[in-house]
Structure formats: C-alpha cells, structure tokens
C-alpha cells in the first residue's frame, strides 16, 4: 500500500519569519559536546538556588486550611497578594513613586521575557522601529525582529555614555527619511546590563527623556531592570525612569524578574505599567496566550517574599556571583589576555563580562576563532548578536552564571590558550 505523504502546512508570515534564535544553536552545541564549558547561556548559579526556601514555602502552602486554591487556575494579571508584595518592593526601590494602588498596575508573567514580548506585540507593526541600547539584550532584539519590526541603536561612546548630539542627528535623520512616526518604543537595560554589565547614569537617562521629548518622540519606554537586585557591593544609585521628571510625559513600563536574582526555574517575572489602558490591552494579549502565569509558582513566591526568605537569601546569591565574576576575570588576567590587547571592565553586578577582542580577530559564530574555542572546549556568545544594527564582530559575552569557580578558571585558561594562538 503506498503511503500518501501529508501535505505541509502553509505557514503565516509570522510563522515563516520565525527563526530559532542563534543562541539556541549555541546551546545545542554545548549540550552535544561532552566536556565543553559554556559561558554562553545566561543560566544562573546552581549552588545558590534556594531549595530550602522553596521546600518551606511548599510546606506552608500545603498546611493552609481550606481549599488548595493555589493549585487551581489563577487570573491573567496575577495573584493580588503577590502584586501587593511586588508593589511594596517597588516602593522600596523607588520611594518617590507618587502613585496609589500601585498593585493594580502590575502584571505577573512567565518570566520578564513574556512581559517584554507582550509589550512589543502590543506596540509594533511590521516595519516599526524600537530604539535600543548599543549593544542590547539579544533575546529582546529577537522579539523585535520576529515581529517584523526593526531595532535601531541609540548612540553610546566607548565608556557607555549616551551621546546626545549623535542622538539629535539620529532623530533628525529619521525625520528626514519619514521614519520618525515608525518609532514605537525605546528599550533600555539600565542596571548591570546584559551584555555589558554597565549601568546607565541617572543624568544620561534624564537626558534621553529630555531629548526625545524635545523632538516630540513621546513613545513608550520599556525599562528592563532584570539585574537591578544583583549588585555585588552597592546598588546602582540611579533612579528608574518611573520617578524621573524628564520621563513624566511618557508611558513607561518597568520590567523586573524573580528569576535572575532567585530562581530561574520558577520563571516568575513582573512588570509595572504607568498607563492603565495600555496595561489592559497587554493583559488582553496575555490572556489569549495563557490566561494566567503558574498560580502555584506565584503562591510560592507570596510565601517566600512574605516571610523574608527572599531577603535573607539574596546576599548569598550576590556573594556567589561576585566570587564567580572574579574567578573568570582573574583567570583571563592570569592568561595574559590584557597583554594581547583584549579589553574588559570589572562589573559591579549582573552575570556577564563583555570582552573586546584586539584588532583582526573576528569573534563571529562562523569564524575561525569561535570554532577554535569550541574545539578547545569553551563556548561564548559572539558579541555581534547583541547589536540591533551595524553588528560589530570583535566582542564576546561571557556569562559566569552557571559554571563553578573552578570551571570558570578552567574556561578562562582554555580561552586564553586560543587567544594566544590567534595573537599577531
Ligand atoms: C536583560 C534581560 N531581560 C529579561 C530577561 C528574561 O528573563 P526571565 O524571562 O527569566 O525573567 C533576561 C534573561 O536573560 C535578561 O538578560
């Protein structure tokens, strides 16, 4: 009997445009290569995952009298008590936030990645533009491009300072080309950024708002603070755009997460939105996607945040990342990378070193340097993936999230050995 092959489905434009993110390819090769040490994916530290806190929270929930509502569906917006706790935490970070009923403006999501996706989906049509940091968080750039929109880089200098005259020229050029109306949002990773580990100063953040307003580009600001709580010694002092006068006229959304500083596996993120109607539309989109983030995971966080478990645990996480950052940094120094012309800064928080290669080395995924690193058992994120436009191929993002200090030292040595082979 002959088998008639099934006809392939006819995919939508969106379905056809979708590409597996480049980083997924990297992660696959990490899993398939035994012994490979990966500083590529932004996985978090296994040794400080809060197992005891989750056990205690699960027991407390199980012991609650009444029906186990936490194992039932919840609401799209998120559990009211958790939103109230998150609102109180936001007040801690932004004490001058002048709003009542903050909790009504929160959305609890499946990681902050979902909130970012829903926000861009609610704002951008194909062909629209999102202004982004240079470099920026590559999985956000993937959201923008997968929706058919286009990231355009804001101008920064080599020290990570925003360049206002160049920003003025960029806005003037977008006006001349008739594209200014296509700018639909601005996206900033303003604390211990992915990939650079840098923070945006309050004066630069204010200047950005002032300049956009002066050019009548009053579009929503998406401020991603994923690493704000992951400082090593001191929090970064800049206020968020939520409380900066220069941003008052802009709709703003503040994206935070409980994954990076606490537990990636529990996958709870949240966002605060200054505009009620916009929030309602995003909730409508989220509702069609999932009609609610895991109610159980949210209930666990109510316990953990409510009983102080989060606050007592997070200093351990901060100490752990600082030690790991230093392990990698010192291994690279000891490997003589600086003498070969490699450059990087020592971040004050977050999970990444951002390394600049000396002239002549192409760090791209298909280049010889990247291949040699994989053959030598170390995998990194090629920096070109982190540029919204005009990619630069002489950068590397190295995450010290998941490897142990000993593994990071080994990864640093392997990397340095390859760098020496490629030195001129
Ligand atoms: C800057 C930034 N924002 C958002 C996210 C998304 O994290 P999650 O969905 O786990 O909250 C990440 C993850 O790496 C990130 O680096």
Structure description:
By secondary structure, the chain is of the alpha/beta class. The chain is 40% helix and 12% strand. It is built from 13 helices and twelve strands. The chain has a seven-stranded mixed β-sheet, with helices on both faces. Pyridoxal-5'-phosphate (PLP) binds at residues 42, 111-113, 137, 189, 194, 224, 226, 257, 259, 264, 269.
Task: Provide a short characterization of the protein structure.
The chain has about 425 residues and is an alpha/beta fold.
Key words describing this protein structure:
424 residues; alpha/beta; Aspartate Aminotransferase, domain 1; Aspartate Aminotransferase, domain 2; seven-stranded mixed beta sheet; binds pyridoxal-5'-phosphate
Instruction: Give the low-confidence spans.
Output: none
Mean pLDDT: 95
* CATH class category name of the largest domain: Alpha Beta
User: What's the CATH architecture name of the largest domain?
Assistant: 3-Layer(aba) Sandwich
Shape: globular
**Helices and strands, in N-to-C order?**
HHEHHEHEHEHEHEEEHHHEHEEEH
Sequence of strands across the biggest β-sheet = 2-8-7-6-5-3-4
Bound molecules: pyridoxal-5'-phosphate
Major sheet summary line: 7 strands, mixed
- Rg on CA atoms, Å: 22 Å
% residues in beta strands: 5-15%
Instruction: Let me know the number of strands.
Output: 12
**CATH homologous superfamily descriptor of the largest domain:** Type I PLP-dependent aspartate aminotransferase-like (Major domain)
Kindly name the structural category. alpha/beta
* Named CATH topology of the largest domain: Aspartate Aminotransferase, domain 2
Overall structural domain count: 2
Distance between the termini: 65 Å
Helix percentage: 25-40%
Number of helices: 13
């Amino acid at each position: 009997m002959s088998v008639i092959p099934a006809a392939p489905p006819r995919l939508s434009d969106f379905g056809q445009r979708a590409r597996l993110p480049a980083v997924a390819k990297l992660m696959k090769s990490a899993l398939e290569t035994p012994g490979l040490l990966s500083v590529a994916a932004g996985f978090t530290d296994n040794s400080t995952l809060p197992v005891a806190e989750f056990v205690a929270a699960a027991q407390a929930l199980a012991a609650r009298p009444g029906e186990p509502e936490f194992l039932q569906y919840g609401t799209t917006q998120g559990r009211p008590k958790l939103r109230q706790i998150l609102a109180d935490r936001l007040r801690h970070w932004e004490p001058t936030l002048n709003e009542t009923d903050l909790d009504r403006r929160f959305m609890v999501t499946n990681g902050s990645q979902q909130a970012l996706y829903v926000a861009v989906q609610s704002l951008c049509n194909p062909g629209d533009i999102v202004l982004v940091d240079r470099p920026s968080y590559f999985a956000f750039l993937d959201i923008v491009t997968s929706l058919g929109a286009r990231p355009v880089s804001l101008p920064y200098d080599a020290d990570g300072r925003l360049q206002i005259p160049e920003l003025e020229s960029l806005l003037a050029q977008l006006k001349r080309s008739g594209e200014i109306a296509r700018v639909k949002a601005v996206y900033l990773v303003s604390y211990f950024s992915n990939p650079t580990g840098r923070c945006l100063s309050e004066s630069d953040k204010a200047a950005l708002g002032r300049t956009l307003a002066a050019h009548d580009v009053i579009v929503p600001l998406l401020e991603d603070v994923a690493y704000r709580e992951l400082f090593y010694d001191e929090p970064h002092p800049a206020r968020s755009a939520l409380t900066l006068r220069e941003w008052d006229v802009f709709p703003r959304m503040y994206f935070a997460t409980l994954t990076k500083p606490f537990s990636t596996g529990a996958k709870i993120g949240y966002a605060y939105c200054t505009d009620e109607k916009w929030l309602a539309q995003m909730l409508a989109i989220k509702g069609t996607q999932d009609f609610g983030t895991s109610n159980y995971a949210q209930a666990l966080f109510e316990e953990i945040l409510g009983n102080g478990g989060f606050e007592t645990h997070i200093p351990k996480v901060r100490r752990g990342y600082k030690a790991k950052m230093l392990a990698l940094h010192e291994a690279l120094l000891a490997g003589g990378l600086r003498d070969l012309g490699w450059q990087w800064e020592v971040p004050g928080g977050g999970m990444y070193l951002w390394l600049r290669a000396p002239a002549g080395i192409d760090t791209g995924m298909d280049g010889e340097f990247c291949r040699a690193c994989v053959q030598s058992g170390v995998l990194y994120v090629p920096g070109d993936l982190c540029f919204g436009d005009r990619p630069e191929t002489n950068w590397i993002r190295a995450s010290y999230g998941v490897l142990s200090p000993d593994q990071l030292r080994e990864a640093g040595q392997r990397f340095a050995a390859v760098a020496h082979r490629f030195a001129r």
